[in-house]
Amino acid sequence: MSAAPQHTSITRLVLVRHGEASGNRELRYLGVTDAPLTERGQEQARQIAAALSPFAVSAVYSSPLQRAQFTAAAIGAALGLAIQPEPELREQDFGAWENHTRAEVLALDPETLAAWERSAEVAPTGGESLAQVRDRTIACVDRLAAQHPGETIALVSHVGPVKALICAALALPLAGAQRMWLDPASLCVLDWRITASGPSTGMLHIFNGIAHLDPPPRWLSAGLK
Q1: pLDDT interval class at 194 (50, 70, 90)
Q2: From the candidates 100, 158, 205, 212, which is the catalytic residue?
Q3: What is the pLDDT of residue 2?
Q4: What does the pLDDT average to over 140-165?
C-alpha cells in the first residue's frame, strides 16, 4: 500500500531588499544601524512599489529598520495595504563591525573576518551569525506562511535574511550565501512550502530582479569586467 500524500501548504513570497541606504555605496556592514534611504533609494522604493502591482499581494511585512520601513511604506501606498512590522526580518547584527567597510574590518579584526567568511556559524565580534539569522527568519516565515496559505505576501527585508531564506528553500549550504549578490531595491520571488513532516522547502522563480530600476545598477550599466 502506498503512503498517503503529505499535506503541503504553499505561500508565494515576494522578497524585497530595501532601496539604497546611506552607506550602501561604500559596501558598509550596516546591519542593525538604522541608516536612512538616500535620495536615489527613495526613488527606488517608488519604482519597486510599482513593480509589485502584478503580484496580487495580500499583505506586506517589513523589518523595523527605517530603510526597510520607508521602502515598505511606498509599497503599501501603491497597493493600498497597511504595513505590518516584523522584527525577525531585521538585518544581521554585525556587532563591532557595524557601519565599517570590509577593508576597515580586515584591519581591525582579520582573524574573525576570515573565519566568518568561511563559516555561517561564526558571528562578527559581538554580533550575530548568519546561521542565527537563518533560524529566526525561517521561524518567522513559517509563521507568516501558515497565516497566508495559498496567498502572495511581500516581505521587505535585507541581504542576510533574503539570502538565508533562498539557501534554506533550495537546500543549499548557507556558506553559499557569501557568493550571492543582491542589489538595493531588488526582488526575489519564492514559493515557500510548509510540509507536515519535514523542513520547509521552496521553488525560486526570480532572483535579484532589477528590471524595474531606472537607472540600472552601476555594475550592470558599466558591464562586467
Answers
A1: confident
A2: 158
A3: 45
A4: 97
158 is catalytic: yes
Domain total in the chain: 1
Question: Is residue 2, in this structure, part of any structural domain at all?
Answer: no
Q: CA dihedral in degrees (147, 206, 22, 110; nearest 10)?
A: 100
- Name the active-site residue from 7, 18, 100, 148: 18
How many alpha carbons fall within 13 Å on the CB side of residue 87?
Answer: 0
Residue 121: give its domain's CATH number. Answer: 3.40.50.1240
pTM above 0.85, yes or no: yes
Containing structural domain, residue 183: 8-222
Residue 100 catalytic?
no
The answer to the question of residue 56 being in a domain is yes
